[in-house]
Fold this sequence. Notes:
Structural class: alpha/beta
Number of domains: 2
Helix content: 25-40%
Distance between the termini: 23 Å
Amino acid sequence: MGGTQNGKTVANGRVKNGKTIELSTPVEECPKPAFYVFWLVQLNITMMLLGAMVATLLDNWGIVKTKRAKGDPRMKDFSPLGNSFDATYTDHIYRQSTDVVNRPISGVPGAIVRLKDRYTDDHGWTQNRLVFRYTGKETEVINLGSYNYLGFSHRSGVCADAAAAYIDKYGINCGGSRQENGNHIVHKSVDRTLADYLRVEDAVVFPMGFATNSMNIPALVDKGSLILSDRLNHASLVTGCRLSGAHTMVFRHNDAKDCERKLRDALCGVSPKTGEKYNKVLIIIEGIYSMEGTIVDLPSFIAVKKKYNCYLFLDEAHSIGAVGPSGRGVAEYWGCNPKDIDIMMGTLTKSFASAGGYMGGAKKTIDYIRRYSAGTCYGVTMSPPLIAQVERAVLIMSGQDGTDIGRQKAISLLDNSRYFRKELRKRGFLVYGNNDSPVVPLMTFYITKVVEFSRRMLKHNIGVVAVGYPATPLLEARVRFCLSADHTKEHLDYILEALVQVGEETNTFYGTKIDE
């Protein structure tokens, strides 16, 4: 079952109640607001920064005293650890918005979560003690911030029971790395489970998602190699590229044609680091981009990979479990052969409600990683109960548990994503990303607006993620929603009602109302 959307053939439609539900691609995944919006946002941030710089100067001259951290006189002859811009931004802009970030939770991060109530009596300036004070009370909110895409984050049920059983059987620590005595039977089991789920020859797990990228990319390429990296790739991928020593070129977001142009130009020359022809080329992309909600144009990148005999690295941190009829990620979503992807990376933290990451691919590639990766050599191994959580969740999503719970979770998540995005656009909000992506960024553009937006949503008992610089460009602040299969239509309708009210209060309707 397939279809064509916007000139692209889309495979693996779904059948629900006898009706085919096609996968969809919006006309424009990152639409632009009216031309004057960026001018006004730039004026806003310029005035904020000028005010911050003046305040810093007045503080340095002793005219105005603030609680800003002062440099230790003993360190005056040392090079600064940071830069003046970041320090000024943190002291005078970020500091005043710290109440909307790092909110502590005190329960399971399901569709409903409990937040610990807190306050600051000096606008977040406090040093040498806790910035926020706790009231001793808690508030239940609808959770739109956690990566609980499939709704496996529960304190009871088959996954929790399996994790508890593994604690009784194996304990919580294996006491070593995969190359030493930490290579436990449960690790071999989860490697095989994930390889079968991904439909690749082999896989290997790591205890941390960030390190899965940053510690393994240096094992795959070196200073004689070329990396082509999407402009919006995650920090863990950027760190891995830098640690590898390879020459890295950045291409426009999700643009296979620009990737090909840069690749072709690079292959006409030599490596600037070795003066010789590149020994290999690695293209690095993500399945779903966590701040844009865009789904990668995987077929186009596979075509480039095959045409130029490159290697393709796919990071599925946000897409594994979240897209595809059985949650197998963007390869299943597009109907591509997983064997056309040389490295399939993903995290176990989000859809599977555990911790860690994995690398999947051909057996010879995974064996090479097991032997030469810093992660397997120096890193400790995953805890057994975390592995039990992953294995049980994968069995459910693949249908091997004998139920259709996994299929229903995938359908519920897809329905929620499409419904929520459609309703946001109908109300005039500007939303980034693909219709089928559970990551939904609502653009506020102004840093001041995104902070106030989050505060006012909390008054409606709705927890959202407010995102600004440096996680996004200075002029593109946004509220990011992460949808879950556990969210009900009643949840979403209540959220939409609150969003309209807060949108009117903050004047954040930057889109064009669309009646779909």
